[in-house]
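Q: Convert this sequence to structure tokens.
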Amino acid sequence: MSRPVEVADEWLKRIKEQLVGVQYGVIQITIHNGQIVQIDRTERSRYDTEKSPSAARKQR
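A:
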């Protein structure tokens, strides 16, 4: 039977800090024995590009 995860205010503050400024990405929270032990933040960079060169050639 699983037990509920208790989240201290300090961890909520840390999670919020990791969320600031992320437009594309992942915030991963690692839990061991019902307690948060780690927060990983992975950000992605997205670029708006003009049509790719191969797509432009196909339209000609």
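Residues 5 and 45 are 32 Å apart (CA to CA).
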